Amino acid sequence: WDARITTPTALAGLINGGLANDFGDPANHVITPASPGHSVLLTRDSARDGFGGGAIQMPPIDSTLVDSAATNVMTQWILSLTNTFWIGATPDPQTVVPGNNAIYTISYLATSDFTNDVNLSAGNLPPGSGASFNPAVVNNTTTNSTLIITTSGATPDGTYSLSVVGIGGGVTNSDTMGLEVISNIVYGQPGTMLWT
Predict the structure, then answer these.
(1) pLDDT at residue 114 greater than cutoff 80
(2) Which of 7, 120, 175, 195 has the fewest CB within 10 Å, making it most exposed?
């Protein structure tokens, strides 16, 4: 899973993330919403089994003490993961010439008890641009959408922080992504230095 702070939860592989070793239980994931007993990250963080064969202790440091305050916070967080969803956009950031399009994939991830449709919208668009989603609604069956940001010749150069917002079932979540509009992009062959 991807633990970078800049990676949206929907794309991190943390929630319901797959495991190389599920310890014999297919219900185990990196984090299983509302189920501390099936959240292997918590299990490993709570273990102090030394460095012998089959050790699952994490982090693998020479420690015999569990950080009970940290594991209690993690347990409460896992228990709170109910009736919600996350969205995330890739690739991020993107660069376009005015008049061209930027295409993002919007990924949707929900807890198993969230069964509502989520309507998508885009915000903070540059002047002279527009946004369209296909489809405009995601859910547990349709988990990806394509967002096309169309720019025009009138779209000014600049770096923009766009937002994608999902609303459904009384829950609102969002992600931000970068778009750079540059009029004078110079392309060359790989390994070629261009002076402008």
Answers:
(1) yes
(2) 195
